[in-house]
Amino acid sequence: MKLPYGRRDVSVDLTRYLRVKCFTPPKVKLPGDPAAMTRSSLDGPVESPPLAELARRAGRAVIAIPDRTRPAVAIEVLPVVIDELLRAGLDPDRISIFVSTGTHAEHSRQELENLAGDSASGLAVYQNCAGRTEDYEDLGTTERGTPILVSRKILEADLKVVIGTVAYHYFAGWGGGRKMLIPGAAHIETARANHRLTIDDKGELHPGCRNGALEGNPVHEDMMEAAGKVPGVFAVNVLLDGWSRIAGVVSGDLVESHLTSIKTARPLLEVPTGGKCDLAIASAGGHPFDLNFIQAHKSIDHAAGCVRDGGVIIAVAECTDGIGSDNLLSWFELGDAESVSKRLLWQYQIHGHTALALMKKLERVNIILVSSLGEGAVENLGMMAARDMNSAMMMAGCCLGGKGLTYVFPCAWGILPVA
Question: Any alpha helices (H) in 23-175, and if so which ranges?
Fold first, then answer.
């Protein structure tokens, strides 16, 4: 079998394994031209006037788009949105593009232009710089104490159009929608306080913070409250199938359009697997889902739910940008999950919950990582490093002591296996 790895494939030989099941995203008939789907959704939005009507009342508009760690949907959707704003009477100098990087690394000018595409030529393009305090306006605090610090580049516009992808998120429940603002356009202190809610009062991972969960999820509910303080938001939710192809577009009110799109997205992304397996081979799905380990961890999280205790995950992720966090390794220096839990209670940092989530998985299963990361870095993260798929398979065989039920996920980022 061939598995996506960065911008290429790697092969794995499974001929000696008698019980192998491959789980690919559900087969769906794509509705058609993404531009036509986008235009139709802008004209018939959920719980909102059409975008053109909103644009005619606006003095300025900003369009928030995903950063380079997400599928490049803006290339397909953005030209239609810009055209709608121009036809409504907005001049190009009153339209700007904002890349919602959140706390991710700042992008180069070339990366920003690539994300926006040719349709944004001549428009001002900005990005979120989460540590630059002077860029943000204070909108108060949420009931849970999160400071609502939002970029002025967003707030200066009367009309905010947020283009987000609807996909599972391992602690926010779902991506897209409100996440384009919080933490996408927020200060690092806003993100830190919000993400701190992944940890409960005992220092454990909050049970409500999991893939697909919104009700009772404190991170999601806090995001919603904070995003609700931003006026004039029109959402464009891009539904993807498991291969990151555009399967639909739902626009309108930030809350209601996102909920509507989630109902449609679930059957596109959930895959029943039956019983739990001994070995799961999970490719993140290649670029951009394996740009760094922080992003690839989402795929490991998806696969872990269908692996028995004592089983093995072979994670396939190139990680050309490295780990993706300056502090993830430091959490592993504490030694174990209990120590991390105690530290998180009084000194929470971004990605601390990622460290705890990975440690919890490593208490239950063995993880072998095929990547471009150095062997030392992988081992410091508690995993085993393999230089290629053959080595990974040999290591898995040693862990399992022979053959076992094997599940293969060529695009683990894009689906949620349900055991």
Answer: 34-43, 51-57, 74-87, 109-116, 152-155
